[in-house]
């Protein structure tokens, strides 16, 4: 029976025989979808007298919100920090491949790079810039091919949606640079924002910036970025706790890969790690923190400490590099050569870790196993929490009525069986029954 034409003649899909992650619990309910959004079945029945046009039997599987990866440097041979002649094609390839890991939205992440890389990868919109930058950009555009830019866009059959860029560096600490190339690190001069514009070219399509809050003049940058709706993350830093707390007061809301590339926890000054239990975080605000739950970057005991101290702030990130999905050997990360040995990725010739080769579904499974948390918590760390961090949890990271129908279907072992974006199946594991 077709749905009531007075509201919409778009088809309605009903997912049956499933457990839906809603309000922090797996609930045995059906899920109703129309025009890419989740429907309230009561309104559908009583107000519209409507019914489903098609049914999907999920055979008891879990339906969770699609995963959101806020830190991914590349994968499958593509390095987002390498300015190739087809930046858009590279991002599109990764966007397509990560569907099989349940990722429906992501932030392509650029590690510390020279300015010409940012200008090539991020679109330049010189109308927003002041006069003194026009000449600079004119020179840059003569030396760099201006490419069809990568813009924020929704996902679909072609791949996961891009929510914006995550620019990790170059405004970070020399002592905690990790795999970031030293020669391209920068600090803020008197007016930090002009340094940002000069380096990045534009802040269009930028969703997150990772910086070290101890750098002089960083506070005005944190405030300005936050006012523009850009998430500020603290990382690659030797900040003490009070510097980190100041940055949070100015608007910072995330910690880039907790424990990695920061001062280790010390009981007299816990540094950035202390934000997890700080009483100086303004009321009503949450400080979120990224964790690379690949079993390599963080000992399971450290993962458990963080989760037990501040469970609602934990955001799973892959920090995946070009070598994700590739065999062992030599690959790249931005300007560095890296070497894959087993599940470890090192800067070639060193024991410095430089991103992971883990996939998001691997991180969800490892986090659950290492922390002993509930299935719901593991799934929310990859969906609800990153959506809350980015301020988009009214539409993504949830399965509430009116939300986007970005879904991942999983078995009880948290293996991804199928991925949906806006209610459309975009990936399915082969050799398995319907759903």
UniProtKB/TrEMBL annotation:
Active site: 319
Name of protein: N-acetylglucosamine-6-phosphate deacetylase
One GO MF term attached to the UniProt entry: N-acetylglucosamine-6-phosphate deacetylase activity
Binding positions for Zn(2+) per the UniProt entry: 168, 236, 257
Cofactor note: Binds 1 divalent metal cation per subunit.
Enzyme Commission code: 3.5.1.25
Positions of substrate binding: 179, 260-261, 268, 297, 353-355
Cofactor(s) needed by this chain: a divalent metal cation
Domain Amidohydrolase-related: 62-426
Biological pathway: Amino-sugar metabolism; N-acetylneuraminate degradation
Reaction equation(s) it catalyzes: N-acetyl-D-glucosamine 6-phosphate + H2O = D-glucosamine 6-phosphate + acetate
InterPro entries according to UniProt: Amidohydro-rel, GlcNAc_6-P_deAcase, Metal-dep_hydrolase_composite, Metal_Hydrolase
């Amino acid at each position: 029976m077709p749905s009531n034409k007075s509201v919409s003649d778009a088809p309605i899909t009903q997912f049956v025989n499933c457990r839906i992650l809603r309000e922090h619990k797996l609930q045995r309910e059906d899920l109703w979808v129309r025009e890419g959004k989740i429907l309230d079945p009561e309104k559908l029945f009583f107000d519209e007298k409507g019914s489903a046009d098609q049914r999907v039997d999920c055979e008891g599987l879990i339906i969770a919100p699609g995963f959101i990866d806020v830190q991914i440097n590349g994968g499958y041979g593509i390095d987002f920090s390498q300015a190739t002649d087809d930046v858009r094609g590279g991002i599109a390839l990764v966007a397509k491949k990560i569907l099989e890991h349940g990722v429906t939205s992501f932030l392509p992440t650029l590690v510390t790079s020279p300015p010409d890389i940012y200008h090539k990868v991020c679109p330049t919109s010189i109308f927003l810039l002041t006069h003194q930058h026009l000449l600079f950009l004119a020179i840059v555009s003569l030396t760099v091919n201006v490419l069809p830019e990568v813009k924020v866009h929704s996902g679909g059959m072609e791949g996961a949606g891009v929510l914006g860029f995550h620019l990790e560096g170059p405004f970070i600490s020399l002592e905690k640079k990790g795999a970031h190339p030293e020669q391209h690190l920068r600090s803020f001069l008197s007016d930090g924002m002009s340094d940002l514009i000069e380096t990045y070219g534009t802040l269009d399509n930028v969703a997150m910036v990772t910086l070290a809050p101890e750098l002089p003049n960083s506070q005005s940058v944190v405030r300005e970025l936050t006012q523009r709706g850009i998430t500020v993350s603290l990382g690659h830093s030797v900040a003490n706790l009070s510097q980190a707390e100041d940055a949070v007061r100015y608007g910072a809301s995330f910690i880039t890969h907790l424990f990695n590339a920061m001062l280790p926890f010390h009981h007299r000054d816990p540094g950035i790690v202390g934000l997890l239990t700080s009483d100086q975080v303004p009321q009503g605000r949450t400080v979120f923190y990224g964790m690379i739950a690949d079993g390599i970057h963080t000992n399971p005991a450290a993962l458990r400490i963080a989760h037990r101290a501040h469970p609602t702030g934990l955001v799973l990130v892959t920090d995946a590099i070009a070598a994700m999905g590739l065999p062992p050997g030599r690959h790249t990360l931005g300007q560095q050569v890296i070497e894959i040995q087993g599940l470890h990725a090192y800067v070639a010739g060193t024991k410095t870790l430089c991103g992971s080769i883990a996939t998001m579904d691997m991180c969800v499974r490892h986090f659950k196993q290492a922390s002993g948390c509930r299935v719901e918590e593991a799934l929310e760390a990859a969906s609800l929490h990153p959506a809350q961090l980015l301020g988009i949890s009214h539409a993504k990271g949830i399965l509430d009525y009116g939300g986007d129908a970005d879904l991942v279907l999983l078995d009880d072992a948290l293996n991804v069986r199928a991925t949906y974006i806006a209610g459309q199946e975009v990936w399915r594991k082969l050799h398995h029954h319907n759903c």
